[in-house]
Amino acid sequence: MSASVPGRKEQFSTRAAFFVSGFTLAAWAPLVPYVKDRSDLSDAALGLLLLCLGAGSVIAMPLAGVLSKRYGCRPVLLVGTLFIVMSLPVLALTSSVPLLVAMLFIFGSGTGALDCVMNVQAIIVERASGRAMMSGFHGLFSVGGLAGVGVMTLLLSSGASPFAAAMTASAVAILTMAPAAPYLLPYGAEGGGPAFAIPHGVVLLIALLCFVMFLAEGAVLDWSAVFMTENRNVDPSMGGAGYAAFALTMTIGRLTGDAVVERAGRKAVLLAGPLCAAIGLLIVTLVPSAWGAIIGFGLVGIGSANVVPIFFTAIGRQTTMPEHIAVPAVTMIGYVGILTGPAAIGFIAQAIGLPMAFAAVAILVIGVAVGGRWLRV
């Protein structure tokens, strides 16, 4: 391992990695309808196709953790970025289903590797700084997401082709990562252990708590617009207002979160954050107005903002499992929450209605506030 201690340049490179991850993932979302139409896919076929992205991510995460331990964070982060910027334009251009399957798997692999190893680097950099930085790192992911959606929407609505928009997104990712590349860590986390292990002890607890928070995020992402239009009678053109409130408050919460964590303490934030998110979901459920729902989704965003970053800090402080194994395990289980959560919400909504489904998620999120009291943060 290099003897150098991570400083400001390494902090910059970490922020760049988080921004690129959020930007490229968000840039893909506006391309999905074009892929569906060009390939003449049914809703069911598109759903199956999108599983390839999730499969690539889940498979890549534990492998990326091992490779970062052996070869360092820098090469894994750069290869992950390369996978993303190469596959995104192809996804925007091709109508071949086999090629879409391959490119989605590669795109997902790059995204999974980036998500896993940028958190490994963030833990090392934050620990070296001696102060809270994780919320700010994750805040750059949110900023990247907002920028990615904004840039792609602007280009596509201005008449740019999907391929040109995707090439622009890839260029932004390259131009962001290039100056950061020399300062990505040439080493990974310390510690030995097997290539992969089932999470246990406190790591299992962190993974389950992350699962719930990612499930809540996935529920808002995939169901808030449906809720706004069908349960609060909002015009479909404004159906995204609930998610916009969630994304905006989460971004603000993360960008200011390090100062809040330093002042209030991680324990306090880990208690207040989930309770705020749960209250927001209950307001969404119980207040019968569109503005009530928008305010409620905003509270979910501000309450959720700093919870997952604190969990990743907790991974860096536990000694049950090496970081290069614990981070992929927790990230992978979190991804399962994002992938399966919206489907579970659909089944619950079918049985008892979408408002009560959000109420059920609120109960789970309250459980995060309770479970977080057991963590060493």
Q: What's this model, at a glance?
A:
The chain is an all-alpha fold and 377 residues long. It is 80% helix and 0% strand.
What does this structure look like?
With 377 residues, the chain is an all-alpha fold. It has two domains: 176 residues, MFS general substrate transporter like domains (Growth Hormone, Chain: A, Up-down Bundle); 173 residues, Up-down Bundle (Growth Hormone, Chain: A), CATH 1.20.1250.20. It is 80% helix and 0% strand. It is built from 15 helices and no strands. The longest helix has 33 residues.
Key attributes of the depicted protein:
single chain, 377 residues, mainly alpha, Growth Hormone, Chain: A, globular
Query: Residue-averaged pLDDT, rounded?
Result: 90
Number of H/I helices: 15
Using only C-alpha atoms, the radius of gyration works out to 20 Å
Distance N to C terminus: 26 Å
- The assigned CATH architecture of the largest domain is Up-down Bundle
Structural class: mainly alpha
Low-confidence stretches: none
The CATH topology of the largest domain is Growth Hormone, Chain: A
Strand percentage lies at under 5%
Largest sheet: none
CATH superfamily of the largest domain: MFS general substrate transporter like domains
Shape: globular
Q: What letter string, H or E per element, gives the SSE order?
A: HHHHHHHHHHHHHHH
- How many structural domains in the coordinates? 2
The CATH top-level class label of the largest domain: Mainly Alpha
How many beta-strand runs? 0
How helical, in percent, are the residues?
Answer: over 70%
